[in-house]
Amino acid sequence: MRGVRIPFFLRSGMRMEEEKLNPVGGQAVIEGVMMRAPGVVSVAVRRPDGGIVYRVRPYRSVSTGKGPWRFAVLRGAATLVESLLLGIEALAFSSRVAMGEDAEESQTEKANLWSRVATALTVVAAFAIGLALFFYLPLLVAHLTGVRSGLLFNLIDGVVRLVVFLAYLVLIGQWKEIRRVFAYHGAEHMSIHAYEQGRELSVAEASHYDQAHPRCGTSFLLVVALVSMVVFVLLPRPHSPLDPLVVVRLLLVPLIAGLSYELLRLGAKWPRNPLLYPLVAVGVWLQRLTTRVPDEQQLEVALVALRSVLGQDVSAMAIPYAQEEIASTASPRE
After folding, report:
1. 24, 35 in Cβ contact below 8 A?
2. 301-332: per-residue pLDDT in tens?
3. What is the DSSP letter of 40?
């Protein structure tokens, strides 16, 4: 596991484009990893007894349909909401498995209803906290400075937002349980690198790669902070924390998320572009706060999630959580 690290991110996007590989992304969860490929989502989790359980199910993104969400910018906002929903669902699943609860999910109508309600409430609460912490708090601090210049006010607002974001990452990284999640985050990236570089999806191969990735959600959040700074500089200064212009700023969040998503896509596709390279490089550097080098067992879980979402056989590595038939799954070379 402590072998030579391969700096990869300048080659990753180029090979994805040249070989038309299916894009794969993921998220670390409790003692596990979620992976997502076109049409399929998989979650693999390490049980308390040491075994690995995985679950694969079909999923169709609205951004791949014929509606307006397939267009640039709009697809970024849609992807953000979908990722949040899938992530919360995967976290709920991983927590049950990691705590050793019964492997069979309740199928009663009442249980499913409460599960949906709990998920919806969690999404609303997470979104509200995120808006308050990363958008309203910086605005309040900027007001407390007493600055009257609109340009300077918005610059202070943007700088405070970046500071809050970085401080948040540093603080949660001190929590032991979060550090384990960060290690699974690193395992997710390392396994995806092995796939994108055409290597065997094994612990031995994946362990040579770096734990950061240019398409990571951490990079996305950084881009959101930077794009919001540019967008808000163009707006008038709110006269108070209750000014209607504050609501306008909040309503622009989906637009900012969409623009950030498109920039991140371009950066991952052309990481050597002189205009995009600084954005990619800073995002990769920032992931040192949200990833850790995983051990072999954590990397093995990530590989189960990746291989299962690609339609590969993982029967020798893990057991299915439920026998679910999937009509079609993405293969590594489609």
Report:
1. yes
2. 999 999 999 999 998 888 887 544 333 333 33
3. E
